[in-house]
Amino acid sequence: MELFPMNAGLSQTRAIIRLIKERKGGSIEVSKIAQETRKSIDVLFPLIDACRILGLCTIQNGMIKLTEVGESITPKTFASVMARELVRIEPFQSIMAIMHQHERLTSPQLAEQLKKRGITFYNEEETNAELLKNMLLRWGVRNKLLNYDSATDIWSSRI
């Protein structure tokens, strides 16, 4: 099972898509993205991988090319496209299934439910729950999949 990259940021992913869209033909070499963004390959790979896993681009022979979905994204549709694509990939697919079974869960409870499905981000429970929380704040809350109450550490589904 391929998991969504933990260290991919939403704004950075959006910037990668925008950069590719600016190119004629909707494709660019990975090395050109590194030059233009002044980011190391170590930083770019999780972002490019996130775009690929979301179905926004393909990667072949060092070239990144937008898919139909990637080409169709506009600033107005970005969040809705992300939400639609996120729910079909792990760990978001499992998270949404879990949240439909349980109305409200804390980060540790959600991490435990994912662990039962074989999905973990780190072998120590507290760190695992914290990594999950950070990813869900970046991707789940901002794309309107989940609500989060920071005072009680409670997650609930928005869809």
Q: Could you characterize the architecture of this molecule?
A:
The chain is α+β, with helices and mostly antiparallel strands and 159 residues long. The protein has two domains: 10-72, Arc Repressor Mutant, subunit A, CATH 1.10.10; 90-157. The relative contact order is 0.14. The protein is built from eight helices and six strands; from the N terminus they run αβααββαααβααββ. It has helices spanning 10-21, 30-37, 41-53, 68-72, 78-86, 92-101, 107-116, 125-141, and strands spanning 27-29, 57-60, 63-66, 105-106, 146-149, 154-157. It has a three-stranded antiparallel sheet.
Indicate the mean pLDDT. Answer: 91
What structural category characterises the helix and strand content?
alpha+beta
Task: Output the radius of gyration.
Answer: 16 Å
Strand content: 5-15%
Number of discrete helical segments: 8
Kindly report how far apart the N and C termini lie. Answer: 24 Å
Order of helices and strands: HEHHEEHHHEHHEE
Find the count of extended strands (DSSP E, 2+ residues): 6
Strand count, sense and barrel status of the largest sheet are: 3 strands, antiparallel
**What is the approximate shape?**
elongated
The domain count comes to 2
The largest beta-sheet arranges its strands as: 1-3-2
Helical proportion? 40-55%
Low-confidence stretches: none
